[in-house]
Amino acid sequence: MTTKKNKAASDIQHLSSVDKLIHEPARLNIMAHLYVVESADFLFMKRQTGLTFGNLSSHLNKLEDAGYVEIIKEFVGKKPHTMLRLTKKGQNAFENYTKKMKQFFNGMPK
Fold first, then answer.
1. Residue 67's domain spans which residues?
2. In a domain, 7, yes or no
3. Within a 13 Å sphere around the CA of 91, how many CA atoms are in the beta-carbon half?
4. Per-residue model confidence as pLDDT tens digits over 90-106
5. Is 2 within the bounds of a domain?
């Protein structure tokens, strides 16, 4: 028979298996925005997330290093333009993250 204490410990253990890289609030915000669009430019993401240029850039670099985000730098005329999109790995990681979080919250006592 499972006690409430054992269930809570199991739920916490389940929560510890979520992707910590995505779980950070700024990166979760970025991933969620990129998940629902095909691609987005840097300025759009800056406005949507409310992050500063430096903060957004730093978090995007971490997501790119993990293989979750592709950063495409190009020039439009003579102006630099940066496009962002989730990779297939990033899409899968985000789906796995949301699945684990839903399972955790669905298992919480009401």
1. 15-106
2. no
3. 9
4. 999 999 999 999 988 88
5. no
